[in-house]
Amino acid sequence: MNALRNSVRLIGHLGDNPKVRKLDSGKTVANFSIATNEIYYDQSGKKVSETTWHRLVAWGRQAEVVENYLKKGSEIAMEGKLTNRSYEDKNGEKQYISEIVVNSLMMLDKKSEQI
Known about the structure:
The chain is mainly beta. It has 2 helices and 6 strands, in the order E-E-E-E-H-E-E-H. The chain has one domain: CATH 2.40.50.140. The longest helix has 10 residues. The termini are far apart. It holds the Pfam family SSB.
């Protein structure tokens, strides 16, 4: 049996400006989200638009690109890996999160929109 690959490809718009920080280790990390839209017609012929939000995280050089070139509303195409992790919130309760670790991204905005 062939091994399955964990690969996600999305095209969407950033919902907010990326949050970028340097860790104590010196690594740069960027957290941001994108919205993808699906448009279809329901059984009655009515046009329906559904938006899905995806959490993304970029590390190292990718995080620096995100910090320098992307902002709220930027359109990107990206490929990455779906990951799941948990953390304790400020109340000590365990929280679970799914996010996509970005391997590559392409900016799709027109040049004048990227400035």
